[in-house]
Model the fold of this input.
Amino acid sequence: MGAAPPVEAVTALEPLLGPVTCDLLSDRRGSRAWKVIGSRGTVALKANNPEAAPGRDKAAEMAQEDRHLLALTEAGALSPEYRVDAGAWEGGRWLAVRWIDGTPLWNALALARGPEGDRPSVRPWLLGVARTWAAQLERLHAVGWAHADVQPTNTLVTPDGRAALLDFALSCGPEVTERLPYRGALTHTTAPEIADALLTTPADTHVQARPPADIWGLGASLFWCWTGHRPVPYADDTPRMDKLRAIAAGKRLQFDDARPWSFPVFEEIITACMAPAADERPTAADLVAIIEETQ
Done:
């Protein structure tokens, strides 16, 4: 059965959803997530795990994500329907958002990773995933925000082939004083300029992620989930600082050594997103326009 969700969260959600059933989805890295189903709707509920090993302050991150959702909604970058509710509980913080029916990016691209993915129906579908993902980033970037954690785990693909962006806890907006210091996210999709900043600043210094880093993360995620190979070559047991050095140095696996099948247009889009210099990458708006021209 797994851990039960916070009573405080269930009490707050039942007036909105009706009597609920709760299915534990994950319990890792200091936080837990449930699918909460009621007669009037379904939400995704997250809460910190107070019994987790010492590490990042997940309760503080959850409170920060709630502040980010409120700010992004007010700025028009997120639908008002996305954030459902949030609050404190005996062990920390909880947050509920609208349930999105989708498949994690890695699983969604499973067919495309093999030779059998080379078929006419897959090509426009892959481009549609990339375009809708860029369109969501465009909304954030237009109001001065970067998602700052663009990676496969934070992206779902809906049944109609659209990308859905999740998890705004680490996002970087115009206000940098009232927040936890940003020290990067998933190493494998970290942009070179972020890697360099992490290597050259103290561990408690905030590194401001900007829109071009999101574009690199998008390209890196598409490369990884389409080819099955991480975009920067290093061994699994390589220390994180050495991985960041490889990323900052511009090392990258080439498509000739990774592609499951030839898709030149898609490869060109990914390559543009992963330009080593931030100012050489397309903006999210440019990326949407480039992909629309190819479809």
User: Anything to note?
Assistant: Strands lie at 20-28, 31-38, 41-48, 83-89, 92-98, 103-104, 155-157, 163-165. The longest helix spans residues 122-142. The chain has a mean pLDDT of 96.
